[in-house]
Amino acid sequence: MITAQEIRNKTDKKYISFLQSLVEQRPFEKLVIRGDKSYTKSSLPEFEKEIQQIVSQSKEKKGFGYTLEFQLVKTKFLASQNLPISIYFDTEKDFLKFLDKEKEVELFKSDVEKITNVFPELKEWIIKNPLRVITNQTEWDNILKVCQYFKKNPKPNLYIRELPIKIHTKFIEKNKGVIRELLDILLTEQINSDSKEFEKRFHLKFSEPLIRFKILDKEISQKYFSGIDDVAIPVSQFESLNLPIKRVLVVENKTTLYTTLTLPKMDETIAIFGSGFSVYNLKGAQWLINVELFYWGDIDVQGFEILSQFRSYFPQTQSMLMDKTTFEKFFENDSGTPTNVSTKLNLTDGEQQLYEVLKINNWRLEQEKIPLYWINELVN
């Protein structure tokens, strides 16, 4: 036999489909809660208590809620007893008052009307996401203002906080999720579907990541940057960089970037701070295809995984100081970070063999721990 709590749980589960029926303008139909019509327990006091709990929450006792129909049923241990064979909600009011959702549904109806009056094409989204309408119940006026602006200006080319919309300056940033879902429907033809980032997807300006690099050729530093050798510029500017560079060294860690300035003069060379897996910010710099390219990372599983990632952008990439000899000479029994990567990496045979050793033993040699004299020997 079903319990009072099970009736509540099953009724809760009917709520979403009820909301959907409102949007589809389907009339309320008797809502049946299915339950077990048998009873297998042997305690009469327990049976009477469960029946009392079910009846106490019914329309008969409270004036609203579910209606119960009983039938005399022969049980396994308690002879014949009156069991509820049918549980149902007769009216919308009974259903909503039982769930204490009357006010919420009134607001939902109002919001649905508000949304569909402005954008009828959002009706299907509402049917699929009725709880999203309720979650954003206090925000729909402003959400619709944003959508109306983008509908008229599908390619604003402004920063989010520059948009001439009468809303709080942080409103769009706080509500990107729902706004994106709606704009994807409203601006199907105008969105940049290749990008998942909100600003890029909807043609907004955004704060770009900076690429930091050090110029290891003093002549280039003097001629193009007034002697400045430590530079950070937006990705888009880095992608269009035009310098007489023939060799590029990408390093994983910031400390190692400083170390590169202590190296002997390196003609036509720059060192880039890759910042771990953020090397993906470099993939659009097509001029890197035409230079001699080196990657220097930690000798651990992540270091080789980053190398593999970077090599997928620029196949000519060579690893630097990420070899077995260097590892065995300077390893100090440091532990690394375990990895869940199981796909084949884009590594040479020697790199792959070292990677497997590091992975099995969870070992790490950070690039900062390699002495300068060893680095200089390699460069020279």
TrEMBL record:
Domain of life: Bacteria
Segments forming domain DUF3322: 5-184
Pfam name, any one: DUF3322
Domain Wadjet protein JetD C-terminal: 207-377
InterPro entries named among the record's database cross-references: DUF3322, JetD_C
Protein name: DUF3322 and DUF2220 domain-containing protein
Organism: Chryseobacterium manosquense
